Amino acid sequence: MQLSREELLKAYRDMRLIRDFEERLHVESAAGSIPGFVHLSAGEEASAVGVCMELRKTDCIAATHRGHGHALAKGCDVTSMMKEIFGRRDGMCGGKGGSMHIADLDQGMMGANGIVGGGPPLVCGAALTAKTLKTGGVAVAFFGDGASNQGTVAEAMNLACVWELPVIFCLEDNGYGEATATSFAFRGDQLKRAEGYGMPAVRVNGHDLFEVNEAMREAVERGRNGDGPSFIQCMTHRYYGHFEGDSTAYRAEGEIAKVIEEMDCMMLFRKRVTEASLLEPEQMDEIDAEIAGIIEQAVVDAKASPPPSAADLLTDVYVSY
After folding, report:
1. Residues contacting residue 50 through CB under 8 Å, at least 6 positions apart
2. Which terminus of the chain faces fewer neighbouring Cβ atoms within 10 Å, N or C?
3. Number of neighbouring beta carbons within 10 Å of residue 111
């Protein structure tokens, strides 16, 4: 199924928004403007967008601590997110969640998560709701190669298969669990793990939006039709360290420079759509300029926004029914 011109433009816009958002946070974090830890997803845009472009607003996702891209791809407001990351009172979560705990239930974003492997059990709950109420909804769990070894992930995959839940498990395999290479910490095959529970599993090039999207489309169709969960392993790379300030001494010299030169998802997308005459370079250039302005204004607004007050400390502690 070929994507329409409108879908292609939106996909490029979403990837550009994520890339510029993350690159600006890299600068602001180095300047000391952002409190707390920041984990950037630059380089992984095709995974987030290729997955989320197949979702409805009412579908749910659970992200990782590297969740900015997932939130933006799911439709979360860029200015509200920027204010949240800057720790401002009128941020998406009142300035209390920060980078690792952004959530917007109105957009189906159940939250980024500081707990490694914390997302898969959450989406099983969302998927059970969709199945019970027969809404036709699906739920997506993003998790990394480090989290793939957590018991929560194994239990969630087993539960999703036993209950035949409409869940898509999206493993973003960027080669490192923090500073530990996957080759050092993992033996076996991720696809066979998933298949062992009884779900179809596929490995895709996480830098290729079209390949990710095709796999996601099949998984979503399976989930909406009541055929149970699916597993997608997106092979990708993160351009920055595990966290801002990470020396990345564990990486080979020139490793990421080579990826950027040969595999960057933005570069591959532009090359493919222009060679196929699906989009004009000028159209994407216009998007680049538009997004640059949006990011700049979001930072200006965030810096001008007030921080939480002392009175805000005791709010959001208990749920009122």
Report:
1. 11, 209, 210, 211, 212, 213, 216, 234
2. C
3. 22
- Please report, for residues 76, 152, 293, the alpha-carbon distance to residue 180 in angstroms, rounded to integers and kept in the order given: 31, 20, 37
Check: CB of residue 155 under 8 Å from CB of residue 30: no
Centroid of chain to Cα 255: 23
- Which tokens belong to 290? 């538009």
Residues of the chain with pLDDT under 70: 321
Determine phi and psi for 175, rounding to 5 degrees. 90, -10
Question: CB 90: neighbour CB atoms within 10 A?
Answer: 15
Helix (H, G, I), strand (E, B) or coil at 172: strand
Distance CA 12, CA 5 (A): 11
Q: Which helix (H) or strand (E) holds 35?
A: none
Distance CA 34, CA 245 (A): 12
DSSP string covering 58-99: TSEEE--SS-HHHHHHTT--HHHHHHHHTT-TTSTTTTSS-G
Provide the token pair at 221. Answer: 């169709």
In 3D, which of 105, 320, 242 has the Cα closest to residue 97? 105
The terminus-to-terminus CA distance of the chain in angstroms comes to 45
Burial class (CB in 10 A: 0-12, 13-18, 19+), 47: buried
- Contact between 259 and 237 under an 8 Å Cβ cutoff? The reply is yes
Q: Which CATH class is domain 5-302?
A: alpha beta
Would you call 320 exposed, middle or buried from its count of C-beta atoms within 10 A (0-12, 13-18, 19+)? exposed
pTM assigned to the model: 0.96
For residue 313, the model assigns a pLDDT of 87
Write the pLDDT tens digit of every residue in 66-91. Answer: 999 999 999 999 999 999 999 999 99
